[in-house]
Amino acid sequence: MVACPYLRPREMPLIRFGEFELNEQTLELRRNGTRVRIQQQPTRVLAFLLNHQGKLVTRQQLQDAIWGQGTFVDLSRT
Known about the structure:
By secondary structure, the protein is α+β, with helices and mostly antiparallel strands. Helices cover 26% and strands 18% of the residues. It is built from two helices and four strands. The protein has helices spanning 40-50, 59-67; strands at residues 14-17, 20-23, 28-31, 34-35. The chain is globular.
């Protein structure tokens, strides 16, 4: 798996929320210890949002963090 370049390094790369656990380095999501099959892009979005809990995140911030600046992403269809 490819690591997320925009996430800050941590000693403990696991984020736990409810019955889920996300490994930021491997982008592996588990539910009650069982791996959840999820595509890489949605996992990157989840990781970004988990790292910004309690904060307002704009579409532009999300787009820049996930797809990079200069990449066109049509987020207008919501």
